[in-house]
Amino acid sequence: MVSRVIPVDDFDLVIFGGTGDLAHRKILPGLYRRFLAGQFPDTARIIGAARTKQDDAAFREEVRGAVVKFGGVPEGDENLTAFLNLIGYVAIDASGEDGWQDLKSRMRSGVIHAFYFSVAPSLFGDIAQRLAGYGIADADSRIVVEKPFGRDLTTARELNATLARHFVEEQIYRIDHYLGKETVQNLMAVRFANILFEPLWNAQYVDHVQITVAETVGVAGRGSYYDRSGAIRDMVQNHLMQLLCLIAMEPPYHFDPNAVRDEKLKVIRALEPVGPDDIVRGQYQAGGEGAAYVTDAENPDSRTESYVAMKVRIANWRWQGAPFYLRTGKKLRARTSEIAITFKEPPHSIFDDGVPRANQLVIRLQPNEGMNLKVMIKEPGPGGMRLVQVPLDMTFAEALGNDGADVPDAYERLIMDVIRGNQTLFMRGDEVEAAWAWTDPIIEAWETGKTRPEPYDAGSSGPEEALRLLHRDNRRWREIRA
Is residue 348 among the annotated active site residues? Predict the structure, then answer.
């Protein structure tokens, strides 16, 4: 099955920070794949904007190198030459006045204008002010802002207020690439396009939910940034929070941006405070050829966590009594992201074999995107009724008849949604603030306390204390494996 491509209208897309790592790794290769798919016209314009002094030709060669390196494109690809013809560049001072008139002169009338802020959050306000002040952005323009969107509730509110002085909420696209993943969107399809699961999607039938985002890499190369952030700011407040919301939300009245985000906001506001006994933070130690966190962060006294595990309760009728267990960490055993919904065992078993019978729906976000449902069947062969648990597996690459090449990367999908003007998979300002309001007391308790994160070995599943978090509830974490 080949994915259906829905073309978008003509546009001018300006990438502030066009010479940066995110633009090279994700944005530009993603745009090239959408160009190859024929999703946007060859009259579209993509303009890089950064402080570096260079001309269009030099930036095109930079883009060529990025697409070849990170997009897996052969050097002599003829289509790449056609794509580069859409590329321009403006040397610009984000907090000064140089380059803005040049940028304005390049913007065409009658097309969609989108501005991607792939820069430090400290520059968001300066760029927004100058886009409005120079008349570059109009009432139909869209801006895309990357995380981190603030580092606490106060800074998030300030940032929202700064952007609101120049753009209305409908123009602001706060991007979380996890929401662009094919499997995350399929989660909504599985829940709300099928009657099979929704009657069981509550605490009466669900025992608990586990959400895991595990990484094998450490923080080397970005230690100074990460040490000011930590796992809870970097992952829990945004990525894991969004996954929790999609699992726990009520059905929206329509698949509409504000209807979906209204239901997610209700979940965040229903989250109970997390006490110190329900949260574990850890910090990886040296292992194999890798250094310890404090070495990577260049801070021998660091108390910043590279791992977080927590038990979360949702105070509403649907989920009262069914906890959500969240965990994320660096330098773990395998790179994997998954959501596991464990259902309760049948209230009575007619089989006297002592085999546990809890069904489990596992949604894999990476690697090998897909879903499987664990069910009980009879083991083949004579000799009585022997039960065994097997997965009903749906790996997208196999089920949809392709090798994954036709499945757009998250950034590809989200950028095209910006051009369409569809905010469904983007965070709203009040949603971001509500997430920080829940997270801030946890961070404040850590920063004012004297405890250090629990040490854990690189290449392990995390600190031992995280295992006990579930053991005391007579549950176990799923094994971390690719």
Answer: no
